[in-house]
Design goal:
The chain is mainly alpha-helical. It has one domain. It is built from three helices and no strands.
Amino acid sequence: MERLNEQQWRERFETARAGFESLRQLATASIDQEIETDAAMLSWARQLQSLDLAHLDTDPAFAEPLLRQLLVMNEELVRLFSARREAIAKAHSQQKKTQKGIDAYRNV
């Protein structure tokens, strides 16, 4: 296990913040735009794992507010992707209803 000093840990935190921004952009993209999240999600998970306080070789007290920020970021991603999934499901349901109406009209 690689040991990190405070500066290295903070650099990893900034990398994670950039990953969060990328994921937030994907999550807020228009629902008619197909997005690929697998690589970004995997990277986000790895970035979070790399911020394990057990890797620190210094007092971890400085990290507490940063870890809270990561928690808020993660919760925001959960909300955004859930909202996106719900919007897509709603649009799909509406599309199915519309198609049923079209099919019914054609059969009249």
